[in-house]
Amino acid sequence: RHVIEPRFTPILVTVADMITDVYQPVVGQSALVDKQFLRLQEAIGKEIDYQEELLEVLGMMDVLFAALTKKKASSLEENKSNGLTKILEQDMSH
């Protein structure tokens, strides 16, 4: 259950891999071992789904930030060109 806890994940993934190697020969022979592997598979499956959803949200946020940045940059460029145009117009009228 703590495999999905971010601060424990690196070490617990290694431990889960070692446990899988140790108990692989008895998979299918012990209901208890099989049940625990199913629980581990379920927890990892849920975490994968969660991470995929997070990546989708991050992708959406990237698009929004890129659009906002582009809009802000173009707005700044408009203001700069308008300011320059006004200065040039003032200089020409003198």
Automatic annotation (TrEMBL):
GO terms for biological process: rRNA processing. GO terms for cellular component: nucleolus. This is UTP15 protein. Pfam families: UTP15_C (PF09384). It comes from the Eukaryota. Residues 1-64 form the U3 small nucleolar RNA-associated protein 15 C-terminal domain. It comes from Crypturellus undulatus. The lineage of its organism: Eukaryota, Metazoa, Chordata, Craniata, Vertebrata.
